[in-house]
Specification:
By secondary structure, the protein is α/β, with parallel strands linked by helices. It contains seven helices and twelve strands. Among the domains are: about 100 residues, Alpha-Beta Plaits, CATH 3.30.70; about 80 residues, Rossmann fold (3-Layer(aba) Sandwich). Strand 1 and strand 2 form a beta hairpin.
Length: about 280
């Protein structure tokens, strides 16, 4: 008998684990008409970041390795898309050996960068708690300017994701600490009052609490704002922080004649208590 005939006549080992077979061969996916579904194969909820229109506060650092991809996407988007905002997707890399909180950014299936480390830790934790590994969001490509003498600027990226606090992934969940108001709780103390929050996202617990009181929450102070509330912990004294800029904006509007009142969060709550007593 030839050598090849012996190989053909060889029978597979009865113990699949000894033969190096995968678990799929040991445990078939269909057992007596019941379809077995591996936990990794189960569909995960589709997440879409919900944030205020036109606001893309999260800045992604410009890196040369992604310039070619961003340049191609920017050029094609000008031809095919009427809006400057384009759909993107953030993807958790839980198996990343360097940092399990790493979050990759993709546009049209191409990697265009990564979420900054400090932001990725916050987002990755919430995504893990919500049971999602990816979410869609809006992005805007900026930069890429060209000047004389063949000078040009790097392409950058901004995302419609809040830089602080809880993120609404469109899963129907409410932020931690949110309490649904009861029927006996006052819900009209701030009816028709326009309030700008400084140092906190409009989707924060404070914003939802004031909205339940009937207030209209806005992203930035303007001439029609009734109050500008400085959230607890807002870094208004740091000239590099957006909270400092928003407070300066509110003070300029007041100097120009706006009837806006600027209060800290604690002072504003005291003010609300006085309103309740007066009514």
């Amino acid at each position: 008998m030839s050598f090849w005939s012996c190989l053909i006549r060889l029978k597979p080992a009865r113990n699949a684990s000894i033969a190096g077979c995968s678990n799929a061969k040991i445990f078939p996916r269909t057992i007596k008409g019941v379809q077995y579904q591996h936990p990794n194969d189960r569909p995960k909820p589709k997440a879409v970041v919900i944030f205020r229109n036109g606001s893309l506060p999260m800045h992604i650092l410009e890196k040369r390795r992604y310039q070619q991809v961003l340049s191609e996407i920017a050029k094609s988007s000008r031809k095919t898309r009427s809006s400057s905002e384009i759909p993107a997707e953030i993807i958790r890399e839980a198996d990343n050996p360097i940092d399990s909180n790493t979050i990759r950014i993709e546009i049209d299936g191409k990697c265009v960068g990564y979420i900054p480390t400090d932001q990725a830790r916050r987002l990755s934790l919430q995504m893990s708690e919500d049971g999602i590994d990816r979410a869609k969001c809006l992005a805007r490509i900026r930069g890429g300017w060209q000047a004389h003498h063949k000078r040009s600027g790097l392409y950058g990226l901004t995302l419609a994701i809040p830089r602080n606090g809880w993120v609404d992934f469109g899963l129907g969940k409410m932020p931690p600490g949110y309490r649904k108001p009861t029927s006996s709780a006052p819900t009209s103390r701030l009816k028709n009052k326009k309030i700008a929050l400084i140092g906190v996202a409009p989707t924060s617990t404070l914003a939802l609490e004031l909205a339940n009181e009937g207030a209209h929450i806005v992203a930035h102070p303007d001439k029609e704002s009734h109050y500008a509330v400085i959230a607890a912990g807002a870094e208004v004294h740091d000239h590099q922080k957006p909270a400092h800029w928003e407070l300066a904006r509110a003070r300029r509007l007041i100097d120009d004649g706006a009837s806006m009142i600027v209060l800290s969060e604690d002072d504003f709550r005291t003010h609300l208590s006085e309103i309740a007593l007066s009514t």
